[in-house]
From TrEMBL, chain A:
Pfam families: OTCace, OTCace_N. It catalyses: carbamoyl phosphate + L-aspartate = N-carbamoyl-L-aspartate + phosphate + H(+). Residues 160-308 form the Aspartate/ornithine carbamoyltransferase Asp/Orn-binding domain. It comes from Cryobacterium algoritolerans. This is Aspartate carbamoyltransferase.
TrEMBL record, chain B:
It comes from Cryobacterium algoritolerans. This is Dihydroorotase. The active site is at D310. GO terms for cellular component: cytoplasm. Zn(2+) 2 binds at D157, H184, H237.
């Protein structure tokens, strides 16, 4: 694997292979010394043009557990905010000898532009680009579902027949897009539920069912329900009348949570708006995987860094 | 062939094919087409063997961005004129979004003068509709109309005159001097932060959508306004199938509206955006295959009157970046004729007479350009281009004569090639090569002498 830019182009065997390596990486976290020498001498740059402490520290922990040197480059307070271009930043990092670049960018497609540019010859991992994709989030979600369903027997398995309902701001969600492609590649059935204003204009090419009614979706007893974060800025842009109405129609409140099947999994990519898209009872329940997702994120990102950066990249 | 060619001497164009298919010789003398017929000869004339070449009237572009004054790092009136000549154009209408904006008589006269100085094509300035393109109050349209630049086309292109009352007043006001408002049809609220055509692909790529309705709703409003006040409306760069329908309806109703399509909207689709290559970022955006087909048939049935390039040069750094940060626009003068050839001539929708209409006669008529678009007839100004329809080339950086390298056609194979362009009776392009600025200057001095 040369880059990890999206889950759309990821094949089933490739995805399962990555998840299996993540299982091995998760085992490392249970050892007394939580560190592998795999990427010793390699440099990983976390290039963040958008604030995201959670994702950045997850990648940082992953790189450090693989013994890589980590440089955090934040657009805030750097030359980027003074107008330096993506090109100049990339060439600067190349000159410093970065072997891997983890990029978070507000513009959709920025990681792809970086990978195709020739400005830098490093493995590129997309850590979230605009409203396009966030592939490692989808991988950690798939990993989390697989572990809940199969436990220690997860290796080699897909998610065939698993019914996943994703609720919320699909229009602006890179998590929703990455999960759509990855989960369906792994055999899951995906349903999106959202107010019509927060769905992309044309989803006819998406291998997913679409609905507006959360109660109907819950009545169908999904195996997994994933609540997406509602950004504060959507409230003032006429996507829905106000947060109370949103919560009433599309929030996973206590009453809806009680109607889920006992074995259902409740997921959220974080950070959560408690009381808006998810109630505290749902978020803190045994069905919730919110903290597992965080822990699994490190394992999955270790696997991605390992696949991109270990060995001779020219051979891959 | 005599090599003592001097400025101001006549030209004998031998064996060219006219747009209607007849083969003929042409004599250009004293800035006019002096003779048309077979077996012509002219003492002292320079002969251009034009066997297999099509002689088209000099092309007229109603929509060009020359960037000067103010953005000379992107293009100057000289370099833009050179790009035009290489593309077979003899006249370009220079859009008003310069800095300072072309919203006063002084600025439009300056642009006119710089065009005359360059001497490759007639540079006809377009005037801004509103002061500073700000959409708030009318610019001095009358002063620009009666200036030495005799402006007849007014446009805030780049911005839509979205205020309906201001648009109504502008349409009414320009009737006083037979002007036309060329509208950039884009409802601003429906296109905030828009990055590409809104549809299945934008949904997948996660780029903010530019919905077709944002163009169609403004066109619908404007044709009704034009009908109400009895004015002349021109619609810039029509890009959607729905817009073609609205304009077709308006014309059937007798509304005085004309419309243009760009070469890129006639050939390219949004599918090129996969990969986020900012060379394909343009406003209005590239659309679906259905839209391209509707534009082509609209051009063939006359709903779309003309092809105009929307030539929009940008420096390298404006495109060598992530999609959201990139500038909108493509250069188009050098490639326009080949792209029209590929899009609608090869498919049989348009013949060469139609090409002469949509790229010369009709734009000259809409823009009220004297001395342009009169066709290849005896006595008309010697404005023409010789085109080799049998040629084929991989379009490359060397085919671009302006400053901008932001062409979407680089590395594409395009049919045809401009072999020569004549403006005011002298050659601006000869043997497929641009003549130097110095040569053009001496031609001009001779003509005036």
């Amino acid at each position: 694997m040369k880059h990890l830019l999206s889950t759309k182009g990821l094949g089933r065997a490739e995805a399962i292979g990555l998840l299996d390596i993540a299982e091995d990486m998760a085992d490392v976290a249970n050892r007394e010394v939580k560190k592998l020498p795999t990427l010793r001498g390699k440099t990983v740059v976390n290039l963040f043009f958008e604030d995201s402490t959670r994702t950045r520290i997850s990648f940082e922990a992953a790189a450090k557990r693989l013994s890589a040197d980590v440089i955090n480059f934040s657009a805030k307070g750097s030359s980027v905010s003074k107008g330096e271009s993506l090109k100049d930043t990339a060439q600067t990092l190349a000159a410093m000898g970065a072997d891997g670049v983890v990029i978070r960018h507000p513009a959709s497609g920025a990681p792809e532009v970086l990978a195709a540019s020739g400005w830098i010859d490093a493995g590129i991992i997309n850590a979230g680009d605009g409203t396009h994709e966030h592939p490692t989030q989808a991988l950690l979600d798939a990993f989390t579902i697989r572990r809940r369903l199969h436990g220690s027997a997860s290796r080699g398995k897909g998610l065939d027949g698993v019914r996943v309902t994703i609720v919320g701001d699909v229009l602006h969600s890179r998590v929703a897009r990455s999960n759509l492609w990855l989960l369906t590649t792994l055999g899951a059935e995906v349903t999106f539920v959202a107010p019509p204003t927060l769905l992309p204009m044309d989803m006819s090419a998406w291998p997913a069912a679409v609905g507006f009614d959360l109660d109907a979706a819950i009545a169908a007893k999904p195996d997994v329900i994933m609540m997406l974060r509602i950004q504060a800025e959507r409230m003032n842009a006429a996507f829905f009348p106000n947060s109370r109405e949103y919560s009433r129609r599309w929030g996973l409140d206590d009453e809806r949570f009680a109607r889920l099947a006992p074995a259902s999994i409740v997921m959220h990519p974080g950070p959560m708006n408690r009381g808006l898209e998810i109630s505290s009872a749902a978020a803190d329940s045994a069905a919730s995987t919110v903290l597992e997702q965080v822990a699994n994120g490190v394992s999955v990102r270790m696997a991605a860094l390992y696949l991109l950066m270990s060995g001779d990249r020219e051979d891959s | 062939m005599p090599n003592h060619r001097t400025s101001g001497t006549p030209w004998l164009i031998r064996g060219a094919t006219l747009a209607d298919g007849t083969r003929t010789d042409l004599v250009l003398a004293d800035g006019r087409i002096a003779e048309i017929g077979s077996g012509l000869s002219r003492l002292g004339a320079t002969t251009v063997d034009s066997d297999g070449l099509i002689a088209l009237p000099g092309l007229v572009d109603l929509h060009t961005h020359l960037r000067e004054p103010g953005f000379e790092q992107s293009e100057t009136i000289l370099t833009g004129s050179q790009a035009a000549a290489v593309g077979g154009f003899t006249s370009v209408f220079a859009m008003a979004n310069t800095s300072p904006v072309q919203d006063t008589a002084g600025v439009v006269e300056q642009v006119l003068a710089l065009g005359e100085q360059a001497g490759y094509v007639t540079v006809q300035p377009i005037g801004a509709v509103t002061v500073g393109l700000a959409g708030e109050r009318l610019a001095e349209l009358g002063a620009m109309a009666t200036s030495r630049a005799r402006v007849r086309v007014f446009s805030d292109d780049g911005f839509c005159v979205s205020d309906p009352l201001l648009m109504r007043r502008a349409l009414e006001y320009v009737k006083a001097f037979d002007g036309v408002i060329a509208q950039h049809a884009q409802e601003p609220r429906l296109t905030e932060k828009a990055q590409m055509n809104e549809g299945a692909l934008s949904s997948e790529l996660g780029l903010a959508g530019w919905p077709a309705v944002a163009e169609e709703s403004i066109i619908a409003r404007d044709v009704l306004l034009a009908e109400h006040v009895g004015s002349r409306l021109h619609v810039c760069h029509v890009s959607t199938a729905g817009s073609v329908d609205v304009i077709r309806w308006a014309k059937a109703r007798g509304i005085n509206v004309t419309a243009e399509a760009t070469p890129h909207h006639l050939l390219l689709t949004e599918d090129l955006l996969r990969g986020y290559d900012a060379r394909f970022k343009v406003n209005p955006p590239l659309r679906r295959t259905e839209d391209v087909e509707a534009l082509r048939s609209g051009l063939a049935d006359g709903t779309i009157d003309i092809v105009a390039t929307d030539h929009a040069p940008h420096p390298v750094e404006a495109k060598d970046c992530e999609w959201d940060a990139a500038a909108n626009g493509m250069v188009g003068l050098e490639s326009a004729l080949s792209v029209v050839h590929a899009a609608v001539v090869e498919s049989g929708l348009l013949g060469w007479s139609d090409v002469a209409r949509v790229l010369s006669a009709a734009p000259a008529r809409i823009g009220r350009a004297p001395g342009q678009g009169q066709g290849i007839i005896v006595g008309a100004p010697a404005e023409l281009t010789l085109y080799d329809p049998a040629a084929s080339r991989v379009f490359g950086r060397a085919d671009l004569a302006g400053k901008g390298a932001n062409s979407p056609y680089l590395n594409m194979t395009l049919p045809g090639r401009v072999i020569a362009t004549f403006h005011r009776g002298y050659a601006t392009v000869l043997d497929g090569a641009l003549r130097s600025a110095g040569e053009i200057r001496s031609e001009r001095e001779n003509n005036h002498g």
